[in-house]
Amino acid sequence: MNPTEKALWFIESHLPEAVSLEDVAKSCGVSRFHVTRAFGAATGRSVMGYVRSRRLTEAARRLAAGAPDILSVALDAGYASHEAFTRAFRDQFGTTPELVRAQGSLKNLDLVEPILMDQSFLTNLEPPRFETSRPFLIAGLGERYSCETSAGIPMQWQRFGPHIGNIPGEVGGVAYGVCVNGDDAGNFDYIAGVEVSDFSDLPKEFSRVRVPAQKYAVFAHRDHISTIRRTVNTIWNRWLPASGHEVADAPEFERYGPEFDPRSGNGGLEVWIPVKG
Predict the structure, then answer these.
(1) Residue 30 Cα distances to 4, 26, 45, 109, 236, angstroms
(2) How far apart are the first and last CA of the chain?
(3) Closest CA to 8 of 41, 37, 50, 49
(4) Which of 3, 16, 77, 255 is a plausible cystine mate for 28, CB 3.0–4.6 Å?
């Protein structure tokens, strides 16, 4: 089983318990960062966001079935008070626990059912080459995303496009999409940028990333850019668990060379995953 399959099994079989991200990571035999990244790549959700949504969905079922005590439902869903449960319930479903119980219906609730894993990994993932990067600097437009909001990245590239070729100190010909500052909730910063010689004269709204000398597993993605998530999912959920390599604490990035055509999305790119050793 890959890390996401293991995580889903563990979550669903321990749903009434106080499950932490550390618990999920241990059940998968990988780090918290690895399970967070793998789960997000496979499902488009954060691990603990999925846990929360699943618990609230099962709580909604109990309420619609006429549960007599809302506080006991709240406690079973992992909330210490009626008030905290009501806030989370309203954020998830746009209504209150009391109303769902009174109506005795789940109609119009956006329930989150157990995820059934899609086993459609790439069958033609090329073996990576291993390369130690030189230290270099990336500058560009940065945004903070969650697993659920990362569909906004193409729009970010559209905003960044007019800057390319006009950035002080730009080292031309190559663009980078850099993921940094990931947290346990699955949030991360994504910088659409280019290499620069220094940070001194950049526009104030630009984000800056120092990429250290680091060993990377480098994967070729030759298909259209729209299928990049499938490649990343295959790397994190199939290649990495079988490879014996551990992920290093360093930026992960996409490298778009001169052959990539941003207008058509064709031309291919490389996915650089930092590894230890």
Answers:
(1) 11, 6, 18, 34, 11
(2) 25
(3) 50
(4) 3
pLDDT tens digits, residue range 151-206?
Answer: 889 889 988 989 999 999 999 889 999 999 999 999 999 999 999 999 999 999 99
pTM above 0.70, yes or no: yes
Name every residue whose Cβ is closer than 8 Å to that of residue 104 and which is 6 or more positions away in sequence.
64, 65, 66
The answer to whether residues 137 and 195 touch, using CB atoms and an 8 Å cutoff, is yes
Render 16-81 in DSSP notation, one character per residue. TS---HHHHHHHHTS-HHHHHHHHHHHHSS-HHHHHHHHHHHHHHHHHHTT-S-HHHHHHHTT-SS
Task: Give 136's Cβ-side CA count (13 Å radius).
Answer: 17
Instruction: Map tokens 């597993």 to a residue.
Output: 217
